[in-house]
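Collaborator request, handled under Task 6.
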Amino acid sequence: MPFSLSLLSKKRIAVMHLLVNHVREGVQNRLVSSLYREDLFEGLLMEDEGLRTERERVKALLDAYKEAFKTLSEVL
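Structure tokens returned to the collaborator:
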């Protein structure tokens, strides 16, 4: 009898896994389809003005540091 209970338990577990995976895939597909909206892409891909300004400032600093390092390397 323990063998049949074990087999029955394994069947139940397998069915539950199939059901859970099916529901998970369905929920995931619904969530992705609700998030995937082409009309929002343009706004989401635009860089924030503050970040753009900060990136340009940091790039200018980096260029200045590189130039200073190059000058120091030539002197030394």
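The cover message to the collaborator said: "Residues 59 and 65 are 10 Å apart (CA to CA). The chain has two domains: 1-43, 46-76. Please let us know whether this matches your experimental observations."
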